[in-house]
Amino acid sequence: MSADVYYANGLRNIIPYLSKRSSYAKGRWVGLPLLTVLTKEFRKQGPDEYLKGIKSGRYKIRRGDRFLEVQDVLELPIEHKDIIGMTTHNHEPPVKQWCTSIEEENSIVEGKIGGIDIVYEDDELLVVNKPSGIPVHPTGQYYLNTLTEILKKHGKLVSPCYRLDKTTSGLLIMAKNQIIASKLQEKIRVHDMTKLYLARVEGQFPKILEVPTDLILTQEMILERIMTPALKSSVDSDIFTLELKKQFPAGLSPSREAKTDFYPVKYIPDLDQSIVLCKPLTGRTHQIRIHLARLGFPIVNDHFYNLRHSKYPKRSRFLLELASWEKSGLPPSTLKEKFDQLEEELREYQNSSSMQRNDEVCEICGSDLSSPIKLNELELYLHAWRYSDNENNFNFVTEIPKWIE
């Protein structure tokens, strides 16, 4: 699969393209008509467009050795072992442009591949400095506009050993074979890997005045902070994830223990902001972002956990204020009521966004052609800076990000 790329307004765009894929029906789809699943699960188009797609044969159900007739697809509920076939006209969201088109077209040139900095490479590993604003691997609406697919264009078939959020930049270790991937993932799982991140947060971080503020930071100066236990602040609070696509209580994941240590690096008085060194001791989703916000120092440009910027403030508060929904003492009825409020908040935001869109739609699939992506929402002041294991077999570090000053 390939598609044409163009750059505009600081964004890397993929020209829409057709693709076919099929998959077994997920358990939560069983018992529901395909139209209901498409409308609720994907939310890329409205019910009318999905209905047209079913009638035109772009969405099918294979049951046993045959495809169901269109009328049966519309009327019969999905069953276990059904195969859902989709021919979609993909409108991938844009990602943040990290280099020029000429630089991206080049393979390895002066320590870069596709315009992305190479930190280290051998026969088993490729370590890069991931730009902010691009997903690591295909997920959701993203496929070609992902780091692994871009590297594949340059002949690098690699698998990430851990995930970084789309908006997070920094050190990404990728394996060229499954053996080394499993070895690194096991080290991370048993906490035999020290991970250090840099963040820029709002406010005067605890103990920040005990470190110099008027010096240009170096790698060595930042690393010294972690050698001073008296500077450490720790957050130890559970974290759970939320999936509004699922019903209550399945949409609430089990709460899991999470702990992060923080060290002050530098205070910026004019902006009342701080640079913080972050050492996660567990590996939960959005752990650093959540713990900084719970501590009262959210990342400056976090468009979810910084409540001044959040599009979904009720959802953000729910995840920040409720460390463990199982231990909260709230009865199931109250949790269900809160879950319903979060669903309503999402619907209200989607309706508000659709009212602000233009009337231009795609002639092929009916998708709205207005772009909801804003460039400033594709960068987060959180950077994976250094990874090392206890035996020092793996020890990688990136450059300090520009926003640190």
From TrEMBL:
One of its GO terms (molecular function) is RNA binding. GO terms for cellular component: mitochondrion. GO terms for biological process: enzyme-directed rRNA pseudouridine synthesis; tRNA pseudouridine synthesis. Residues 125-293 form the Pseudouridine synthase RsuA/RluA-like domain. InterPro entries: PsdUridine_synth_cat_dom_sf, PsdUridine_synth_RluA-like_CS, PsdUridine_synth_RsuA/RluA, RluA_PseudoU_synthase. This is Pseudouridine synthase RsuA/RluA-like domain-containing protein. It comes from Vanderwaltozyma polyspora (strain ATCC 22028 / DSM 70294 / BCRC 21397 / CBS 2163 / NBRC 10782 / NRRL Y-8283 / UCD 57-17).
